[in-house]
Write a structure and sequence with these properties.
Layout: E1 12-15, H1 17-20, H2 26-38, H3 41-44, E2 48-50, H4 77-86, E3 90-96, H5 112-122, E4 126-130, H6 140-152, E5 159-162, H7 174-177, E6 181-183, H8 192-201, E7 214-216, H9 231-235, H10 242-254, E8 259-261, H11 270-276, H12 279-285, E9 294-296, H13 301-304, E10 308-314, E11 320-326, E12 332-333, E13 336-337, E14 349-355, E15 360-365, E16 368-369, E17 372-373, E18 378-387
Parallel strand pairs: 1-2, 1-8, 2-3, 3-4, 4-5, 5-6, 6-7
Antiparallel strand pairs: 9-10, 10-11, 11-18, 12-17, 13-16, 14-15, 14-18
Helix pairs in contact: 5-6, 8-10, 10-11, 10-12
Bound molecules: beta-D-galactopyranose.
């Protein structure tokens, strides 16, 4: 048996929910697929195009099958899958472990094997599996395990994206369920507080991510600028600056989260594209060993509080990806002592640093490096270990 690479690395793609919620259709999805190719997203590694909630009719058919809404998807899901596959891309859909999806469409509860077969027949490559309307007396862990088996046995290689919002101690059992990625948080909103709170909530969880089961901190809001059709996600809560989106992308990339674009890429600005298509950041996120990033608190800790820190991720070739994050207000100097990464002066080493946002070498440093980082901004470097 050859080992599948599906889900081995964090998924890269686009999902309809953040911007469009219920307002989806096949024209939109095809346009996104076209732009993936023409605007360089595919070349940068983005692969999955995922339709979220609200794609089906409110009722199953007489055989109990899910039915795509013919007004939104007149050509049907198989034709849409073919269109996406012809471009060398992959197609994702959405269902729910409960009786209904969060928006009230039919869920897969007690239809798991039937639905997995249906998804395979349509040619889908990715299933996001939500948690609304789960019957209270049923153990949720069991429902993810059930769908995990159904997908593994449906005859098609399908990435299983669990979405139970970090509930029920999901860290402890999700890898066993067969899920390739799992949502560890509630829903993201297109504002700075949400980005900051989601990232901070996962900082002590770096051991719960890795190849074939990635901690998913939720879809990106990069480039949305308040452009959601949903009040909660963004139209009323405001949007962020490009600097804040850059920091958001850097946190997600370093922390090994799947990078699922959530903005309307038909309207993406140059600044948005520079963030989403940053090859140095994507390479850190897609490092083959998928080691978690650990936090180092700058000294003195009483001065920095919890919202300024470094994240360090050991990469497969021996380099270290290091992010300096200032999630607080005002400029901060963030001194990194190499000792705190296991590199004392006596080791005879120095670090040659490359700036992954400015795309330039910063020079070689011994013992410490102390950049000043503006409010809500970050510096991400790739550090090569060299002889002093
Ligand atoms: C939520 C989920 C969101 C989105 C939404 C659809 O539970 O966290 O990402 O899928 O449901 O209704």
């Amino acid at each position: 048996m050859t080992i599948s690479k599906t889900g081995m690395l964090p998924a890269l793609g686009w999902n309809s929910w953040n911007t469009f919620t219920w307002d989806i259709n096949e024209t939109l999805i095809k346009e996104v697929a076209d732009l993936f190719v023409s605007e360089g997203y595919q070349e940068a590694g983005y692969e999955y195009i995922v339709i979220d909630d609200c794609w089906s009719l409110r009722e199953r058919d007489e055989n109990g099958n899910l039915v795509a809404d013919p007004k939104k998807f007149p050509s049907g899901m198989k034709a849409l899958a073919d269109y996406i596959h012809e471009k060398g891309l992959k197609f994702g859909m959405y269902s729910c472990a409960g009786t209904h999806t969060c928006a009230g469409y039919p869920g897969s509860f007690e239809h798991e094997f039937q639905d997995a077969a249906q998804f395979a027949a349509w040619g889908i490559d990715f299933l996001k599996y939500d948690y609304c309307f789960k019957p209270r007396q049923i153990n949720g862990e069991l429902l993810y395990k059930r769908m995990g088996i159904a997908l593994k046995n449906c005859g098609r290689d399908i990435l299983f994206s669990a979405c139970n919002w970090g509930e029920d101690n999901v860290y402890q059992w999700i890898r066993e369920s067969g899920a390739h990625m799992y949502r560890s948080t509630g829903d993201i909103q297109d504002n700075w507080d949400s980005i900051k709170n989601l990232a901070l909530s996962q900082l002590e969880k770096e051991c719960y991510t890795g190849n074939y089961c990635h901690n998913d901190i939720d879809m990106l809001v990069v480039g949305m600028h308040g452009g959601s059709n949903n009040d909660f996600i963004g139209s009323k809560v405001g949007g962020c600056t490009d600097t804040e989106y850059k920091t958001h992308f850097s946190l997600w990339a370093l922390m090994g989260s799947p990078l699922m674009i959530g903005c309307d890429i038909r309207k993406a600005s140059k600044e948005t594209k520079d963030i989403l298509l940053n090859k140095d950041l994507i390479a850190i996120n897609q490092d083959p060993e998928c080691r978690g990033a650990y936090r180092i608190k700058p000294e003195p800790q009483w001065f920095h509080g919890y919202d300024a820190f470094m994240l360090v991720k050991l990469l497969a070739n021996g380099d270290l990806a290091i992010g300096f994050f200032n999630l607080g207000e005002g400029n901060r100097e963030l001194p990194l002592l190499f000792w705190d990464m296991g590199l004392p002066y006596a080791s005879g080493t120095a670090l040659s640093l490359y700036d992954c946002w400015e795309h330039k070498e910063l020079g070689t440093f011994t013992e410490r490096f102390a950049p000043t980082v503006a409010a809500h901004d970050c510096l991400v470097v790739r550090a090569k270990v060299v002889k002093r």
